[in-house]
């Protein structure tokens, strides 16, 4: 198949978009699971979330996002030959 085929190009774009959506969904599930384990030690969800738990969840997600961004930036720098 010719690489200039517009149908192939469109298919590859759709495949890339779907792959990115899937990675995002997996990351959300990972964040949710880890932060749930950290902030909610009881296996039963509370009927109403208190301020302490809300703050814990927000901080947990923010730290996970910060760590993820740091790793992406670090890998990009390594990829471009900057230690």
From TrEMBL:
Belongs to the small Tim family. Residues 13-77 form the Tim10-like domain. Heterohexamer. Mitochondrial intermembrane chaperone that participates in the import and insertion of some multi-pass transmembrane proteins into the mitochondrial inner membrane. Also required for the transfer of beta-barrel precursors from the TOM complex to the sorting and assembly machinery (SAM complex) of the outer membrane. Acts as a chaperone-like protein that protects the hydrophobic precursors from aggregation and guide them through the mitochondrial intermembrane space. One of its GO terms (biological process) is protein transport. One of its GO terms (cellular component) is mitochondrial inner membrane. It is found in: Mitochondrion inner membrane. The twin CX3C motif contains 4 conserved Cys residues that form 2 disulfide bonds in the mitochondrial intermembrane space. Keywords: Chaperone, Disulfide bond, Membrane, Mitochondrion, Mitochondrion inner membrane, Protein transport, Translocation, Transport. This is Mitochondrial import inner membrane translocase subunit. InterPro entries: Tim10-like (IPR004217), Tim10-like_dom_sf (IPR035427).
């Amino acid at each position: 198949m010719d690489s200039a085929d517009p149908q192939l190009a469109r298919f590859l774009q759709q495949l890339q978009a779907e792959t990115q959506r899937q990675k995002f969904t997996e990351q959300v599930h990972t964040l949710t699971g880890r932060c749930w384990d950290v902030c909610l030690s009881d296996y039963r969800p509370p009927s109403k979330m208190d301020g302490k738990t809300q703050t814990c969840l927000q901080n947990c997600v923010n730290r996970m996002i910060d760590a993820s961004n740091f790793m992406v930036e670090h890998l990009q720098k390594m990829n471009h030959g900057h230690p």
